[in-house]
Structures are given as C-alpha cells and as structure tokens.
Amino acid sequence: xxxxxxxxxxxxxxxxxxxxxxxxxxxxxxxxxxxxxxxxxxxxxxxxxxxxxxxxxxxxxxxxxxxxxxxxxxxxxxxxxxxxxxxxxxxxxxxxxxxxxxxxxxxxxxxxxxxxxxxxxxxxxxxxxxxxxxxxxxxxxxxxxxxxxxxxxxxxxxxxxxxxxxxxxxxxxxxxxxxxxxxxxxxxxxxxxxxxxxxxxxxxxxxxxxxxxxxxxxxxxxxxxxxxxxxxxxxxxxxxxxxxxxxxxxxxxxxxxxxxxxxxxxxxxxxxxxxxxxxxxxxxxxxxxxxxxxxxxxxxxxxxxxxxxxxxxxxxxxxxxxxxxxx
Length: 327
Ligand SMILES: Nc1ncnc2c1ncn2[C@@H]1O[C@H](COP(=O)(O)OP(=O)(O)O)[C@@H](O)[C@H]1O
Ligand SMILES: [Mg+2]
Description:
This protein is an alpha+beta fold and 327 residues long. The protein is built from 10 helices and 17 strands. Strands 12, 13, 14, 15, 16 and 17 form a 6-stranded antiparallel sheet that branches. Helix 2 runs antiparallel to helix 3 (108-115). Bound molecules: adenosine-5'-diphosphate and magnesium ion.
C-alpha cells in the first residue's frame, strides 16, 4: 500500500504566499508511484483539505484526518511546507508529536529554537561555530543606543528575532540611525537582535539527512545589488544567486563543515538551509541563521542546489519523506 502523505501549506504569517509556491514545486515532484498525497491548507480561515478540483473540506483536528468520498483518510506522514508560523516554529510539530504522526521537518524544540535567531547563534556558538557578536533586546527592557554601541562596533544589523524574509531589518552605519532601526524592528517583534556586521561574501547552503547521513548540498553565493539581502533583493530579483558557488576548496570545505556541525549541534532533521558570511578579515565562515523550512518554489535556492547535486527533485523529496519515518 502506498503511504498517505499530507502536504501541508499556507500558514499564518506573511510568508504564506511563498508557502503556496513551495507546495506547487513539491506537489509536482512527489513520486506518485510511492506516495498518495493530499494538499492541506492551514490559513486564517481554518484547516482545509483541498482536492484536485480545488474543492475544500475541513480537516478533523482531533487526529488530523480528512474525509474523501465518505472514506476517512489517516495520514502516514506530513510533508511540511509552511514557512513561518505555525509550521517553522515548532507549533505544528508539537501537535503532530502528540498525535504520533511523523513529519519531515526539525522537531518541536529545534524548530522553536531556530525560529529565534539569537537562541540559534547562542547554541551554535557553544558548538564551536563562529557567529557575530550581538545583543538580545526586549521591548519591555529598553536600552539606550549609546549603551549598545559601547558593546558593539558599527556597522550593526538590527533584526526582529523571530522574523523572516528580512522584514523590519536595517543595516545601521551611523550611531544616529540606530534608534530608528530599533523602532522599525520592534514593530515586527517584541524582541530584537542587534548584531555586528560581518563583511564578506555571503553563502547559503542546504543540508539534509538521509539514511542517517548528513549531506550538504552544493552551496549558493548570494550577491545583492542592495546593501544587504533584504526583502526586495530576495523577492524582486535585486540579487544574483550563483549555484554552485565558485570559491576555493579551502573556504568551501570550511562552510560545509560548519553547516554540518550546525545541523548536528542543533539536532536538525529534514532539509534546512543555513546562511553564512565568509568573513573577509579572518577567512572563516560566520553563521547568520538556520531556516528549517526553506523555500521550495521553482525559483528557490534548495531546488537549484538539488539539481546542482545531480539529483532529481523527485528522488530528493522521496529521500526527505522516507527519512521522516526514521524517527
Ligand atoms: N551580521 C550580519 N553581517 C552581515 N550581513 C548580515 C548580518 N545579518 C544579516 N545580514 C544580511 O541580511 C540578510 C538577512 O538576514 P538573516 O539573518 O538571514 O534574516 P532573514 O533571512 O530571516 O531575513 C542576510 O542574508 C545578509 O545579507
Ligand atoms: Mg536569511
């Protein structure tokens, strides 16, 4: 019998729009000789099963089952395709754990941890990975910009701690700009990260586990025409992505090693994408963040990296789904 897979898309954040695009690529590439898949859309209006005709019916939240032609369908596993909450921050993972339903992403604890940029770099640093010096600031305990700049050197990055897609983020070059950047980030989140700017080339690398082995995908260099890889650079084509990246083996190896180490230290599962800056002053990679449900749209980085590795997306998603049953 073919395994029944719920392809879960949508989500409750601004990233939902990207989740729907990811689900199209994934859905088109699930091996239908091996799996029966069903599209589940979790959005503000509810949890819905959508059939091929686009007709919607409610998901039973008691056991995450659906009804198709009068027959109850219980899933064997969930293929998570939600970027942002509740699919990337551990909430759905906790729910699926309670149901005993396998899923393709990191577990609840790792998802929640990595959704917080500061906690991510703190744990990674403990594991010996280089990260930028930063301050973690809460809205309820404001700190004067001057105090921050006694501890950090300009330029700094100011980012919402739990955001994504570079929303609410600024690069601050002058002390006089810091307060405005803090205000902007606090509009998105009640905790933020003020982080020293690392100068150097930017790389992002997919990592996944199959049959117990951690594999790094061919990495991508991100070259942006903006001052940093911001929302416009990401989604309006104001950046260039080169896959596989062209760089000397010694640096490529350092990035691969750091990526594998981060995957291990953070106890990741499934496919994640890790952002690094190769610090031009030291020649060492500095980790920025871990995306535990990276974009899978046709234009996204992970599908490009999979192709660069010489795998078909079909084989890749089969490996990702099969790995979910290993836990
Ligand atoms: N400390 C830093 N030094 C240099 N560039 C940074 C730093 N932090 C962020 N950036 C730039 O901002 C972009 C977005 O930051 P990131 O932490 O990856 O958040 P997200 O991708 O979730 O918006 C990065 O891709 C990079 O271009
Ligand atoms: Mg990023």
